[in-house]
Amino acid sequence: MILDIEMLRSFYASYSESVDKAKETIKRPLTYAEKVLFAHMYENADLKLFKRGVDYVNFRPDRVAMQDATAQMALLQFMNAGKNKVAVPASVHCDHLIRADIGVEKDLPSATATNKEVYDFLKSVSKKYHIGFWGPGAGIIHQVVLENYAFPGGMMVGTDSHTPNAGGLGMIAVGVGGADAVDVLTGQPWELKMPKLIGVRLHGKLSGWASPKDVILKILGILTVKGGTNSILEYFGEGLESISTTGKATICNMGAELGATCSIFPYDNNADEYLRNTGREEVAFFAKNNIKNLRADDEVYATPEKYYDQIIDIDLNEVEPHLNGPFTPDAATPISQMKIKGPANDYPMDVEVALIGSCTNSSYQDLARAASVARQAYKQNIPVKAQLIINPGSEQIRCTAERDGILDDLKKIGAVIMTNACGPCIGQWKRHTDDNNRKNAIVTSFNRNFRRRADGNPNTFAFIAGPELTTAIAISGRLDFNPATDMVCDKDGNYVKLDEPTGYTFPPKGFTVENNGFIAPSESNGNIEIIISEQSDRLQKLEPFAEWNGEDYKNMPLLIKTKGKCTTDHISMAGPWLKFRGHLQNISDNLLMGAVNAFNDESNCVKDQLDGEYKEVSSAAKDYKQNNIDSIVIAEDNYGEGSSREHAAMEPRFLNVKVILAKSFARIHETNLKKQGMLALTFVNKDDYDKVQEDDRISISGLTAFAPGKHLIVILKHNDGLTEEIEVEHTYNDTQIAWFKAGSALNYARLNK
C-alpha cells in the first residue's frame, strides 16, 4: 500500500506546470532546489526572484513528520489551535524514548511499559486528528520516512533536525521546531528565509573502504558546523550515479551538522530503483513523467557558477575513510592520519565500544556491508576487541536483515542487537561501564558526537565513521586502525588483512516485514477525548505565554554568560530528560545545565544576583521568575547548534528569560526562539561579548520602535555604577515582530484566525 497516494497523485498532476510557470516568472534556468521551492509557494502570486539569505518566503509543505520526543510539545500546541484534523498528511514515530540497555528482547517491552502514558497520549492524539502513528519498535523516523513517505520533488518539515535525510530521494525536507510544524498542520503559511544555494559537484566513484558517509564527513571538514547556515546543498555531477539512494540520504542527513537548511539530490535511476524496491511503483511512474523538473536545468549544469552561491568540488576517487571528532562532527580526520593525530592530541587510542545504526546509517545496505566485515572476523578466528552495538533503522530492515542472515553475521562476533530506535545516538544508552567519568574512546556511525551526548560521560571521546570502518575498528580495537593498510591478528598469531566491504544495495529476495507497528489515519476517531492527568509528571497542558507589555526590558540580571560551544544538548539535555518532553515545567529543571559559565568555567553553576549565591541555572532562573524579574542569556557563536528541540527555546521562555544575545545563532534555534516570543539578538561587534560582566543589570532600549532592520541598544549597568551601551541587531521581519508582541507565534495565530 502506498501511503498518502491521493496527495501524491494530486501533487504530480500539477508539479511540472508549477515549475514551468516559475521559470516564466523568474526568466532564467532553475536549479533543482529552486524548482521544488517555487512549486511550493503558499501563494503563487507572491512568486518573484527572492534575495537568497535575506528575504522571508511563505511555503506550503506537503507533509509533516514528528518523532515522539518532540511530537509531544508539537501536538500539545496543535491541540490549542482549535482544529478538528491536520491540514496535511502527518505521522508520529516512536523512536526516541527507547533506551538501549541489554538488547531488543528486554529493552522494547521495558520502554513500552515505562513510556505507556506518553505512547497512549501520542496514539490518541494521532487517532483524533488523523495522523499516522508508528509505534515503539517500528523504526527510526527518518528511515521510516524514506521507506514510506519521501518522494521526489516534494517538500516536508519534520520536528527533528535530521529531517533532511529525505533529500536522498529528492525532497526539500527541513528540520523545524514544533511551532513551525503546527503552522503546517493547521494550514497556515510556513515561513523560511530563502536559502542560499551551495552546489556540490561529485566526480568519479567511491572505492575501497570509502563510503557515502565519508563524503559528508569530508565536506564537514571543509565547511565546518556553521558553513551551511541558511543554505541548501544541492548535489550534482556524474559521481551521483554510483551512490545509492540510502547513501545519498546519509549525506543529506548529516548536512544538518553543517547548519544547512537541507540537502537535496536530483532524481535518477537509483531513486527509481529505490521507489520500486520499497513498493512504490506508481510514485516511480509519476516521477519519470516529471523527470525534467526533478533535476536542475541543463544550463545550470553547464555553468553552475552562475546559479549557485558557492561551488564545492569533490573527487570521489580520492575520498578515503574518515574519523570525525572528538566532541564536534566537523573535526575531520582521514583514517590514514590518525596514527599521527591521535597521540599528538592525547586521544585514548583503544576503542571500547563501536556502535552502528541511528538515522544516518541503518539501511539494509549499511548493515550488509558491516556484516561482510564481521563475517571475515568470524570465519578467520579474529578476536573482536571492542563491544559492538547495532540499532537497525526500521522493523522492515531488521526483519529482512534477520531473514538474510545479516544479523547472525554480526551476532557471531558478539554484536548486541538493540531496538529499531535512536538509542545511544541521542543519549538513550545505559552504558555498562566501570566508571562513567573515565577517559575512553568510542566510534559510531551516528551523526553527532558532542561531549556527554552518547553516554553522559564528559571524558568519552566519540568519533564518527561509516558503518564499515566502525566494524573494522571494533575488530581491531584501535582508533588508528586503517583497514586499507593495516592487519589484525587471529587467534593463532597470524596477521590477516581484511578484505574490502561488500553488500547488496537491496535484498535479493526483496524486503519483508511481519508487523511494522503502523496505525493508519482514520476519519472515524474525531470523538476521542484526550485526557492529561493533572498529577502527571510527564505530560502537562500548555498555558499561553504572556504578551509583551509594550515597554523596553529594563535592569535584567544576567542569568548566564556561556563560554564556547552551546548546543541544544547544553541548553536542554536529552538522555534521562527525554521523559519530560511533554511537561514544560519539569523539563525546565535542566535549563542550560550543560553550558559553561564564562566567569568560573563550570557547568550549571551561576551567580544568583538576588542572594549572591551560586546555584544551578534553573534555580537562579526560578528565583528571578518568582520575584517577577526578567533575565537574559549571553552566548558566543552558533548558539543552539544541533537538534531541533524547541524545548531549548520554551524552557527559558517559561522561566522568564526574555532575551538571548549571542554572537550568532544556529538557524533552527533562532526560529524557535522567535516562535516562542523571545528576543534573539546578535552583537553588531562580536567583541562586545567581552564587555558583559557577571553582576551586570542589562536593559534593551528601542523595543517600542521595534522594526525590521532597525538596531536596538543594550545598556550594561556594571556593579561599580558605570554603564556601557552596545549596538545589537536582529533578523525579525514584520510577522515575527507581531509574534513577539503577541507573546508567541501560536498566540498570534489564535488572535488572527
From TrEMBL:
Residues 35-477 form the Aconitase/3-isopropylmalate dehydratase large subunit alpha/beta/alpha domain. It catalyses: citrate = D-threo-isocitrate. Its EC number is 4.2.1.3. It comes from the Bacteria. The keyword Transit peptide applies. Keywords: Iron, Iron-sulfur, Lyase, Metal-binding, Transit peptide, Tricarboxylic acid cycle. Signal peptide: none annotated. This is Aconitate hydratase A. It comes from Prevotella herbatica.
